[in-house]
Design brief:
Blueprint: H1 43-54, H2 61-73, H3 83-98, H4 102-107, H5 113-145, H6 170-176, H7 186-194, H8 227-237, H9 256-259, H10 267-281, H11 296-307, H12 313-327, H13 343-358, H14 360-372
Length: 373
């Protein structure tokens, strides 16, 4: 780019156009001092973002690292730990596995408390950033997902306004209505709107179920299989364009899942997306772990309680396999039905029969049979 110097700007320069002060000057690329310090994102921030979405979005990372290191130095086993301490330890170990070299950095004898604090701040920055970014993006996108095809919501919901959501709007209230309550009952709607019925985090909304159908006799039926959850998961982990299954993907860069080599859905990632969708439907303006009205952390923890319950492992594994088929179909393990009458099966049967005929044991059996005759 050519820079033109005006005489007005350089009025104090000499008239001679060949004067050295009027000639362009060049600095060596090897000796020039950068006028602006480069701002490179630390990899720990990126790992923190992935940790938020796939392990835990509400962690205090500094406390997690300090408590985890204290337990590592304790030679006793984990049997004396409480339930919450065991969960925290599991989260800590997940973080160590997720971040290459983190364990060595934390346990190095030369590591100082200051360095550990810097590490925790960088990871925490990623956690907070991912949670904030997802909250903002889902807030707008969800309006389209909950609008019935070919219809319009009345009154209309705005992408950037939440005050008329929650139980203040028929559609969002219908989706947020807790299981076991009838949203179509006028008295129930009134109590939900004026706060006479307080909704705790472990009182789950109907939108978690496929087609919003809850079966009290079989509460696992359709649980965490609502299409809105699928859309939100794709929006965050693959790409916004992947939400529209009828359109060709227009993604111009790798999604969060591919960036981190994610090939399978994790239980915590399902809980995280459900938490974000629940908040997006609500009228609350700020996503906060201390917000007792939305109780987002309580909701997330209650979902994780179910996913980590040993007695529910069969249903949880079945659910995760279903999610993999929706999000990562290339990595999902399909149910294979043996093709007994297929060409490949017939070829193998024929080869096995020929091997049996040519085997020594088969020849001896035939010889013995002839001798008996």
């Amino acid at each position: 780019m050519m820079v033109r110097r005006t005489r007005e700007a350089d009025a104090d320069l000499p008239e001679n156009p060949d004067h050295p002060s009027l000639l362009p000057s060049f600095e060596s690329a090897l000796t020039a001092v950068s006028r602006k310090r480069p701002r490179l994102s630390d990899p720990l921030v990126g790992h923190g973002r992935h940790f938020c979405r796939t392990v835990h979005p509400f962690c205090n990372i500094n406390s997690l690292l300090i408590n985890g290191l204290l337990r590592m130095s304790d030679e006793s086993d984990d049997q004396h730990l409480t339930g919450n301490e065991l969960r925290e330890q599991k989260i800590f170990l997940s973080l160590l596995c997720m971040v290459p070299g983190l364990k060595d950095r934390l346990t190095d004898k030369d590591s100082s408390e200051e360095e550990i604090e810097i590490i925790s701040q960088l990871i925490q920055k990623g956690v907070s950033g991912a949670r904030s970014d997802d909250t903002k993006s889902i807030k707008g996108a969800i309006v389209e997902w909950i609008t019935p095809q070919g219809q319009q919501l009345s009154p209309q919901l705005h992408r950037n306004i939440k005050s008329n959501r929650g139980f203040n709007h028929h559609r969002t209230g219908q989706l947020l209505c807790p299981t076991g309550l009838d949203w179509e009952d006028e008295e129930t709607r009134a109590k939900l709107r004026n706060g006479d019925i307080h909704i705790a985090g472990d009182h789950w909304p109907i939108f978690l179920y496929a087609d919003c159908i809850y079966n009290a006799e079989d509460p696992w039926m359709g649980l965490f299989k609502n299409n809105v959850l699928i859309s939100a998961y794709k929006y965050v982990f693959t790409s916004p364009s992947s939400v529209d299954t009828n359109a060709e993907s227009r993604a111009t860069h790798s999604g969060n899942a591919r960036l981190h080599g994610m090939l399978h859905v994790t239980p915590a990632s399902v809980a995280y997306i459900a938490t974000q969708v629940r908040f997006a439907l609500s009228s609350q303006a700020i996503f906060s772990r201390t917000d007792i009205t939305s109780d987002s952390e309580g909701f997330f923890n209650s979902v994780m309680d179910l996913f980590e319950d040993p007695d529910e492992i069969e249903d949880v594994n079945s659910l995760l396999a279903w999610w993999d088929s929706k999000i990562f179909p290339a990595s999902a393990t399909p149910t294979r039905i043996p093709a007994k009458n297929g060409a490949l099966a017939k070829i193998r049967q024929r080869r096995a029969a020929l091997k049996h005929q040519m085997s020594p044991s088969s020849s001896r059996s035939e010889g013995q049979a002839n001798a008996d005759n």
